[in-house]
Design goal:
The chain is α/β, with parallel strands linked by helices and about 425 residues long. It contains ten helices and 21 strands. α9 (about 335-340) links the parallel β16 (about 330-335) and β17 (about 355-360). The chain is elongated and about 70 Å long.
Length: about 425
């Protein structure tokens, strides 16, 4: 951890560091400059970083206007008399000036690189994603905009470390997916689901699941996702075995209900998860399709669940986060405990995504933990969380719980989140 004096000494050296960035690098020079200045605030001790929330956006913009990024040090200079608030203001203004330059010069007529594997800065330390926050969020009055650094430091760009919580962050950007106008999210649950668990004294895994009317529910959900113009559809954790996964894919590909012109297909469908072997190891794997049944990627559960008897989920932990880049939003993914483990700070705050999407399986306490984690994410990043949780053990008059991605986690008691319907939609 950096101490206050260490941070201040590093900041005094920052203009010279910026001066050493290769000026022949074109857009790379601007990106590396943005990363260096962003890092100086993102990694600052919290009392210093907190000062950013005392500076209105109008002051940041005024400082940016006076900053000439054509200088070798991008116009960042200190005279030695600055207090902490002055340093933060100058850093924030320089960062905004660099961001404005990048947007004007490299996101306008010139476009941007198509391969997300090329979106790297800091020698591969971070992803540089040219996407601002959600377009449907209303603009704020600059004079009154005092959002913290994590929500306002960059407005048109995201910087996300390539390693978060020891896991690799991988970007997926399917060029063929467009944004439907609607902001609906679909949740699928299975009333009467019965799990067949294979157990030892120390481990367990799910080897089969019985879903009464399962195929009918899947078909209804796939049709509803199209008819109701859903962005995303999520099936719950450990309910989608290989047969059900193949049936979901078939329904999305063939669209047997369709007559005439097709309604828009969903962005993506999280086909629950299942305990399955990949190579010689078993994982808890969520498969993500696009709305036409094309597999986009898989997400492995990272945290191993332990049941009330002390038996551990018999899986290997996953070692990556996948971020899905779509037309107007970034989506992160997890499986149950990945989000709701309250023993640690949730790593999803480091991902700076618009939505975290989570298939889950558990009881009311599990959902309460999801809601607490969602409140943390909403408070820090204004990230919205969508959790679809099959009830286990089974509960009366409901198939499970759904935390809607409406940006208001925790306002509704957990028992009110019980959902009896097998297919439901929620608006963001």
């Amino acid at each position: 951890m950096t101490t206050h004096p260490q941070w201040k000494r590093a900041i005094v050296r920052l203009p010279a560091q910026l001066d050493r960035i290769d000026r022949s690098g074109g857009e790379d020079r601007i990106c590396e400059g943005i990363f260096a200045v962003w890092k100086s605030l993102a990694c600052a001790p919290s009392p210093i970083k907190h000062l950013y929330s005392n500076i209105p956006e109008s002051d940041i913009s005024a400082t940016a206007a006076a900053c000439d990024v054509n200088f070798p040090n991008f116009g960042l200079a200190f005279d030695g008399s600055e207090g902490d608030a002055d340093l933060v203001r100058k850093l924030g203004g320089c960062l905004r000036a660099l961001e404005n330059e990048f947007v004007a010069e490299h996101l306008g007529a010139h476009g941007w690189r198509s391969d997300p594997n090329d979106w790297k800065v800091g020698g591969g330390a971070a992803h540089f994603i040219p996407m601002g926050r959600l377009g449907w969020r209303p603009p704020k009055d600059p004079a009154g905009d005092r959002r913290p650094f994590d929500q306002r430091g960059l407005l048109r760009v995201r910087i996300i470390p390539t390693i978060v919580d020891g896991a690799t962050v991988r970007l997926e950007r399917p060029d063929h997916l467009l944004s439907p106008d609607a902001a609906n999210f679909g949740a699928v649950l299975f009333p009467g689901a019965k799990f067949d668990s294979k157990e030892t004294t120390s481990t367990f895994f799910i080897e089969a699941v019985e879903l009464p009317k399962g195929r009918q529910i899947i078909a209804t959900a796939c049709e509803g996702a199209h008819q109701q113009c859903c962005r995303a559809v999520v099936f719950p954790e450990l309910t989608i075995d290989h047969g059900s996964r193949d049936f979901i894919q078939q329904q999305l590909r063939k669209k047997p209900w369709a007559k005439g012109a097709l309604p828009p297909s969903p962005h993506f469908v999280v086909a629950g998860s299942w305990h399955q072997f990949e190579g010689s190891h078993r994982y808890n794997v969520a498969t993500v399709f696009d709305g036409h049944g094309v597999q986009l990627f898989t997400q492995r559960k990272r945290l191993v669940y332990k049941d009330p008897e002390g038996r551990a989920e018999d899986i290997q932990p996953g070692n990556e986060f996948v971020i899905l880049i779509l037309g107007d939003a970034l989506y992160g993914f997890g499986i149950c405990l990945d989000l709701c483990n309250r023993c640690y700070d949730t790593p999803y705050g480091e991902l700076d995504v618009d939505f975290v999407v989570v298939p889950s399986c558990g009881d009311a306490k599990t959902m309460t933990s999801h809601m607490d984690a969602a409140k943390d994410l909403n408070f820090r990043r204004k990230t919205r969380t969508f959790v679809v949780q099959q009830a286990y053990p089974a509960i009366s008059r409901a198939a499970g719980f759904v935390l809607a991605p409406d940006g208001k986690p925790g306002e509704v008691p957990v028992n009110k989140l019980k959902v009896a319907k097998s297919w439901s939609t929620f608006s963001a």
